[in-house]
């Protein structure tokens, strides 16, 4: 990569799980480089969702290097995700037909709640022996199965699927970007909303946040968000190893169930 830019550039790893991202700097320019980034990046850049794409180059070995503006800024603190700008940007993403068309042309299919649930149930059956009953997980799976009809047939959108606060970039110029689109899928917007609300948005702020996003909370949306909250929580539970972490995740699952049962009772 050094020969491609020239000796006047210094390049260092930007970290990350893949090791394919780099910072490059010369006297006059700074760039963020990535190897084999998704072609989806060009559409995201054109819509101002990620920092501007400067150039794309294909190497002799077939690898593709993309260069984006390297902007001065910082990751959002968790509490800042309550800001209206976050809701407005996510709403713009979910309502973008251009993003949806691009992911569809790339071969992405809409996520199937039925398939997700079937795989989840098989995974948990393998984890717990036939002689072991886990009441909280059983209740969660029963709820998901009972209400699966309410999460099918939803108009799909582009979902980021990894709305950790570290993936939101706020620049010193006041610009907001959502980065790291490697896990993007096509599915119910409740996937992203449930993830954000469970981790970062107090329940008392849900209505206000959704108004900036461009929606109103109704019982169907609430049930769908909680359905995906349970899905993510059970996946996390499956990955945990220590007794203490398992206990904390179990309490989270109980809290989700309590909230959603309250919503159902208010019908």
From TrEMBL:
Domain Aminoglycoside phosphotransferase stretches: 14-217
Organism this protein belongs to: Halolactibacillus alkaliphilus
A GO molecular-function annotation: transferase activity
Segments traversing the membrane: none
Record keywords, A-Z: Transferase
Pfam families referenced in this protein's UniProt entry, alphabetically: APH (PF01636)
Annotated protein name in UniProt: Phosphotransferase
Coiled-coil annotated spans: none
């Amino acid at each position: 990569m050094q020969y491609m830019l020239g000796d006047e550039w210094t390049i260092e790893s930007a970290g990350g799980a893949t090791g394919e991202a780099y910072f490059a700097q010369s006297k006059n320019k700074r760039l963020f480089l990535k190897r084999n980034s998704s072609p989806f990046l060009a559409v995201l850049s054109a819509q101002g969702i990620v920092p501007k794409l400067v150039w794309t180059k294909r190497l002799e070995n077939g690898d593709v290097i993309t260069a984006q503006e390297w902007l001065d800024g910082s990751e959002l603190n968790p509490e800042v995700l309550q800001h209206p700008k976050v809701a407005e940007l996510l709403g713009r993403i979910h309502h973008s037909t251009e993003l949806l068309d691009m992911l569809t042309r790339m071969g992405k299919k809409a996520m199937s709640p039925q398939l997700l649930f079937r795989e989840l149930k098989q995974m948990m059956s393998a984890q717990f022996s036939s002689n072991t009953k886990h009441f909280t997980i059983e209740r969660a799976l029963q709820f998901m199965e009972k209400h699966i009809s309410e999460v099918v047939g939803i108009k799909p959108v582009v979902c980021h699927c990894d709305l950790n606060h570290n993936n939101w970039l706020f620049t010193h110029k006041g610009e907001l970007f959502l980065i790291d689109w490697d896990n993007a899928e096509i599915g119910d917007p409740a996937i992203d909303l449930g993830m954000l609300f469970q981790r970062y948005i107090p329940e008392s702020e849900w209505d206000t946040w959704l108004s900036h996003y461009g929606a109103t909370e109704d019982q169907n949306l609430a049930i769908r968000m909680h359905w995906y909250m349970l899905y993510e929580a059970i996946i996390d539970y499956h990955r945990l190893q220590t007794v203490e972490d398992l206990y904390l995740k179990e309490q989270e699952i109980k809290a989700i169930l309590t909230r959603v049962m309250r919503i159902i009772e208010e019908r």
